[in-house]
Amino acid sequence: MFKAIGVSAILLGLVGYAGGATRSIGTASARGDVNVDNYAVQGNATLFDGSVVQTGQASADLRLASGADITMASDSRGKLYQNRIVLEQGSSEVKASGPFQLEAYGLRVIPSSPASRGVVALHAGHTVEVSALTGAFGVRNEQGVLLASVHPGSPLNFSIQAAGGGTVAGESNAQFSDVGMISSQGGHYYLVDETGAKYELTGKDVSKFGKFVGDKAVITGTEVPGAGGSGVAGTVSVNKITLNGPGYMSDKEKILISAAIIGAGIGASIGLNATNSTALPASR
Fold it and tell me: Which pLDDT score is estimated for 47?
């Protein structure tokens, strides 16, 4: 009798241990030919820490217990963890209500607010395209250095290339690209984007910002580390300010900013480009 109880207790303990070791982190809903951990899925499947999802000619919806919703496009592959996905092929749309990040080619794409929703796509030539649909995303390297802030209407491409020659020392300021209304207060100029985030604008041509007040404009530049004050999300040193909102920049006006992954990370250089879109008509 006691021996039977003892054996049952051991079995229950082993079951509990196994359950804890393979705790579910979410579910996958397949819309067609989808594999989870090399098994074909029809309908729904349970995801575990480290599960690999591969889509074929259909997409898949992933819902994680952490609050992240992910839609993997067709012909995509990613490795899932509780608070992140490592995109290995194709593209994914991510919406997270809590701490979450998408990793691609050593870059970390992190939502800046709970309302953020965006798409990350891998292209030929080790290029990562990041688009914000709502909210905003910060793009960081493996060392956590902020490389860019991505906002709706201003998708950015990051080209990861093997570094050659010497080592680049130091850190580059975070590159910034956003669209919003320009205002002036107390001799200072500001941009307020569609999320309500307010940035103070500085730069050598600050005296020329006055003609943009009351208009929608594209701002590109670099964020000033440690700057900002009450009610201001940050300060931007403006390299270029262009009237007419998203899509106004032509091919000749693209930004090309070189940075370097520092330390013993992926050892790469990052080219940052504004993606092409159709020019808008003048507002004046």
Answer: 93
List 243's β-bridge partners, or say none. 217
Cα distance between residue 269 and residue 44, in whole Å: 40
Angle at 272 between CA 216 and CA 225, to 5 degrees: 75
Task: Tell me which residue of 94, 103, 138 sits closest to 122, measured CA to CA.
Answer: 103
Instruction: Provide the β-strand partners of residue 68.
Output: 96
Q: Which of 201, 205, 203, 171 is nearest to 189 (CA)?
A: 201
State how far the Cα of 284 lies from the Cα of 266, in Å rounded to an integer: 47
* Encoded amino acid at 223, one letter: E
Residue 145 has a pLDDT of 77
SS (H, E, C) the chain: CHHHHHHHHHHHHHHHHHHHHCCEEEEEEECCCEEECCEEECCEEEEECCCEEEECCCCEEEEECCCEEEEECCCCEEEEECCEEEEEECEEEEEECCCCEEEECCEEEEECCCCCEEEEEEECCCEEEEEEEECCEEEECCCCCEEEEECCCCCEEEEEEECCCCCCCCCCCCEEEEEEEEEEECCEEEEEECCCCEEEEECCCHHHHHHHCCCEEEEEEEECCCCCCCCCCEEEEEEEEEECCCCCCCHHHCCCEEEECCCCCCCEEEEEEECCCCCCCCCC
Whole-number pLDDT of residue 80: 93
What pLDDT shows up at residue 261? 31
Q: How far is CA 184 from the centre of its chain?
A: 30
The pLDDT, as a whole number, for residue 270 is 45
Instruction: Say how far apart CA 55 and CA 33 lie, in whole Å.
Output: 6
Residue type, 31: R
| Residues of the chain falling short of pLDDT 70 | 1-22, 161-174, 226-230, 244-284
Tokens of 89: 């092929």
